[in-house]
Specification:
Distance between the termini: 64 Å
Number of strands: 2
CATH class of the largest domain: Few Secondary Structures
Number of helices: 7
CATH architecture of the largest domain: Irregular
Strand order of the largest sheet: 1-2
Number of domains: 2
Shape: elongated
Length: about 130
């Protein structure tokens, strides 16, 4: 089964497989399957054409995959343009939601870079001096 350019795994149950779509979580899956009147314990490969069409019809009402990604990027861009606190944190590549950064935030800030004193000879070899 293919939805919004994403191939859903055939061996998974429908309720798990649908959560592979960006913007569809476990709570949304149960709402979608309830509206589409599909049993959540079925495997994706066991779905009939009619059931697949009903699921896709329900999914059209949700903002998923590309549309959702574009909206999120637009929101972040807007925050940066109005130079709000959250926008500044996004542009500086720091955590946005108040997490501490002294000891953690490795996921957002990247690998540690040790900065220390270097000898003049080493700096000259690296091309860091302007002499």
């Amino acid at each position: 089964m293919r939805i919004s350019g994403i191939n859903l795994p055939d061996e998974k149950r429908v309720d798990i497989g649908l959560s592979y779509l960006f913007g569809v979580g476990r709570k949304n899956v149960y709402d979608i399957l309830k509206k589409a009147e599909v049993d959540s314990s079925k495997r994706i490969k066991a779905l009939s054409e009619d059931e697949q069409k009903r699921i896709q019809k329900v999914l059209e009402t949700y903002k998923i995959e590309g549309d959702l990604r574009v909206e999120i990027q637009g929101n972040i861009k807007r925050l940066k343009e109005i130079s709000s606190y959250r926008g500044n944190r996004h542009s500086r590549n720091l955590p946005v939601r108040g997490q501490r950064t002294k000891s953690n935030a490795r996921t957002k800030r990247g690998k540690r870079v040790t900065i220390g004193a270097i000898k003049k000879e080493v700096a000259a070899k690296m091309g860091l001096t302007t002499e």
